[in-house]
Amino acid sequence: MSGQVEAPALRAAAGRPRPAVRFNRRQLEPYALLAPATIFMTLFFAWPALQTLLIAFQSAQGSFTLDNFGAMARDTDFRLAVRNTLLLLVLIIPIETTIALVMAVLAQSRLFGRDVMLYIWSIPLAVSDLAAGLVWFSIFTSHGYLNSVLQDLHLIAHPVGFLDYNNLGGLVTAIVLAEVWRSMSLVMVIIMSGIQAIPPELDEAAESLGAGAWQRFWKVTLPLLKPTLQVALILRTTTAFQVFGVVLALAGSALPVLAVKSESWVTEYRNYQLAATYAILILVLSSLSTVGYLLLLRTPREVFQR
Amino acid sequence: MAEITIESISKSFSGVKAVDNVSLTIHDGEFMVLLGPSGCGKTTLLRLIAGFDLPDAGRISIGDRDVTVSPPGRRDIAMVFQSYALFPHLRVFDNVAFGLRMHHVAREEVTSRVREAAELMGIDAFLNRYPTQLSGGQRQRVAVARALVMRPSVILMDEPLSNLDALLRLQMRAELKHLLQDIKTTTVYVTHDQVEALSMGDRTAVMRDGAILQCASPMEVYDRPGDVFVATFIGNPPMNIVRGVARDSTVAVEGVEVRLPEASNFPAAAEVTVGIRAENIEVHSEPHHGALPATVAVIEPLGSHLLLTLAAGAETIKASVRTDFPVKRGDSVWLELREGSVRLLGAVTESARST
């Protein structure tokens, strides 16, 4: 594409001799348009990321060191934080992806009230993670909605401590529910756009060749959704490694996870080095998962060329 | 192989009648073309036969089975789509094998049948490629192979050649006709291209506004159109339509009487619409008995012949002549409407008069 755009410009430049350094306005325009975004991203993302990377390899005095990684590994809750983060991730991602896929496929059918359902399903898109955590906190807490309902139905005599610090199952369930509820609609929106890009005749062709609904889903829809699923999974897994607000609201420090650890090393102990080291660990894990998805859900180049 | 019987079928989409009380019998092994302008209901009729849409009323049977509400996979049909609808994530082999695998055909038989169909369509060299690595013509062949390999009772084709360039279309047209004549499978073929309809079908059903206007052999539809719409939709140039006065077995056009092939239904003089094909008009450079005087308005050389646009009184008539016919713009000529080729297309009604 860029080659086609540049070629006439190059030819014009070759035809008419002109100073090599002078650009005309037309050539500069795209760069001028891209500049604000580039500057913004460099200033507020690339630069802090680089700073974090440098701090993780520095001692408090500013000299190069690898000690921060040792310190992180010896941190009391380190193993727990890694375990909890991974545990939440392997529960949340498959559950929400499956539900989102089902909802996206259902949304394709011409069911009555489809549009209303779509609006309802996309409400969580607009909710922040901390707010989502607080919504579910008000449900699960000892005097929350769930306990009230169960008591009113006389199913329990006394409030159950779903979110007690030692109730691992309760905490994990609540966090998984809240995270799935919060991010499922994002996955659904991504998958729906992928489904809509599949020509409807493919489904009809498969149907006329004798494929049932289930076979059409497995043999046609799902394989063609692979690139879309790849995007959704990469996006959601990298954010799941950073799970923060929901955990903070529902469990506080009762269920340590990597992002909350990083935050507490800054806010409670002013230890920027260790906080940065946790952040780098999250970065490394996210990158590894991304590479994993890229390899695992690879599509032959020929398939989507047009 | 099977006969398709369509009885009084209707289908509306949000209040608009796409197919309106259509009945049609397609014989075993017949090549039936559904022809009409876009929006005439031909594709809807095909989709009703395929089972992608279900009719609001009426009955469809294939062979002796009532399939009115059967799912497409249970109708023993195979469909070739306008867009080919090849599965982009599957290689050519797996595309062709898809239907056989859905029907749990044994692995060895799948391989042999796919190879057989691929050889028939001349795509055996591409079995390992993805659809995106094929040209339009090759994709078309894969789509046909994917349908043929099922050995269906009925093959349905929805404008299968319209995405090909002109030369390839010409070639595929002859090839498809040859192929389908050989395998003798009942075929329903939808097109808006009247040349395809004339050249390929055993019979052509001309459709408009959800109804079949005429269903007959291509030559019959061309030569004896049932009404003005069919007469002007088919043929290039379209049939000349002029006013005339019919009585018994003659019709007068611009005051010149011509004998009709058979007696008309008009014992008393009646104003009628007359149709005649450009090639059935003899053009004379000298006054001729029983010929209409006309003036040459436009001369179009079309390679094999000249197409003349002529003004004869209030009528504009097109006639074709040999390329060596001596004529120039503004010349006076005399038009002899060939006896036996003049068609009466009905009485002129008040509504027709106003249009």
What can you see in these coordinates?
The complex is a heterodimer of chains A (306) and B (355). Chain A is mostly helical. Helix content of chain A is 74%, strand content 0%. Chain A has a single domain, classed as MetI-like (MetI-like fold, Orthogonal Bundle), CATH 1.10.3720.10. In chain A, 27% of the residues are buried. The two termini of chain A are 14 Å apart. The longest helix of chain A is centred in the first third of the chain and has 32 residues, at 25-56. Residues 1-15 of chain A have low confidence and may be disordered. With 355 residues, chain B is of the alpha+beta class. Chain B folds into two domains: 4-233, P-loop containing nucleotide triphosphate hydrolases (Rossmann fold), CATH 3.40.50; 240-354, Beta Barrel (OB fold (Dihydrolipoamide Acetyltransferase, E2P)), CATH 2.40.50.140. Helices cover 25% and strands 35% of the residues of chain B. Chain B has a six-stranded mixed β-sheet with strand order 6-7-8-3-9-10, sandwiched between helices. Chain B has a five-stranded antiparallel β-sheet with strand order 13-12-11-14-20. In chain B, strands 15-19-16-17-18 form a five-stranded antiparallel β-sheet, with no helix packed on it. In chain B, a hairpin with a 2-residue loop joins strand 1 and strand 2 (16-26). The model of chain B is unreliable at 350-355 (pLDDT under 50). The A-B interface holds A 199, 201-202, 204-212, 215, 219-220, 223-224, 226, 299-300, 302-306 and B 50-52, 71-74, 77-79, 81, 83, 85-89, 98-99, 102-103, 129-130, 132-133, 146, 150.
